[in-house]
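ok so for the tutorial part 2 we go from a plain amino acid sequence to predicted structure tokens. step 1 is just haveing the sequence, like this:
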Amino acid sequence: MLEETPWVLQAKDESQRKRSVALLFDLNRMASEQERALDKIAKAQNSSGGFSWFPGFPEDRYMTQHIISGMGHLDALGVRAVRQDARTWNMVNNALRYLDRELQDDYERLKALVKKGQAKFEDDNLGYTQIHYLYMRSYFKDVLIPDDTKEAFNYYVSQAKKYWLKENLYMQGMLALALHRNDDKTTPSAMIKSFNERALRSEEMGMYWKNDRGYYWYQAPIETQALMIEVYDEVAKDVKSVEDLKVWLLKQKQTQDWKTTKATTEACYALLRRGTDALANAKLVDIKLGNETIDPTKREDTKVEAGTGYFKTAWQAGEIKSDMGKITISKTDDGVAWGAAYWQYFEQLDKITPAETPLKLKKQLFKQTNTDRGPVITPITQQSQLQIGDLVKVRIELRVDRDMEYVHLKDMRAAGFEPVNTISTHKYQDGLSYYESTRDLATNFFIGYLGKGTYVFEYELRVSQKGDFSNGVTNIQCMYAPEFASHSEGIRVIIK
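step 2 — the prediction. this is what the tokens look like for a chain of 496 residues:
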């Protein structure tokens, strides 16, 4: 099993994270770690007030804005009373002076270009950095804008009101919050209307938007969704939409990894600060299998994990009754919960029927013959008769309705077939990168990132033995969320 799972370290890493949850309840440890983190940040601040990304680097404007926004988040959460702590407040004020000067410099450069006739004030001169500044500055309205920066500040606020439609969703969310906190009642309400018109909604995935993924800080999907939770809570005051937005954010964590500390902190801020308090309720979900109520506190083999409420339990073959196929789940308090039920049993491979899950597989075998018109393929059925030496093409069609990471596709083959290609290698097709590994029993496809869509995998086999064979099934599973698994139907082949 481990040989067919090349992400063992990733699995260990996730297990370690779960064990680390217990450390969050050690308040003394948390307090000392918080002070150590602040020491580290303080050392990164230069005499100018700006923060460098790495020791020895010059001050970085984006990084400074990101850190001060984070201070605003800590203050809003009540984790750190920024204004009451002299050391932290001094750090924030120095950074704000640096950022105000930088905005003023932007405006002076623009004025110089206008004077030369190379730009116009009425054109769109709003950049990502200025938008991020307006969002960051909205957390510290009590720190007055310097007199020599007021003209620049007012200019970029007017630019935001005029050109917000040209920005991507992340930038629009920042502008909605910045304008709302600066007492603009008209523009943010128009922005909320626009967000609602573009939003996608589903019962399972919640509320979300189609976003362009990219490598820049303003193209990050997790951070964008976290920001939109803040927008709908503070600007729209729409509790239902906030909870739906949180569902999408949590669903991403279910099948993927929140890649960075930045994405994780933004997501945690949104989940803890906005809408229903996810940590306030310790009540377990009520679960019934048939007529049996599952109470983990009364089962000797079951332990409830502190902090998360996670537990698992199992029944052996002799304990399983037919009415256990009816599972009833009820949740009386607010928030979201997840669970999975697995049923393991033995079946003849060729009698297996396809599974219907978010991962859908369709496997077909074709006989390939060369003609004067080129290669021609014909579908192989249970009535088809193959002969030794025939060339068989395997086609696997995969449909997935959400983004997933660390996906393993295993395609079994009949003992009468031998693979034409025996060299394991990385491949790239139709925007999908994967590693194909040919083994004795099956061909494996390891996919690091599987985006939502439809994919087709093809490879060739040669008929080498006569007989009546089961061709097995094709299995697929998300290693990050093993409840997302599926398989194709079984196929039987006859070789003369």
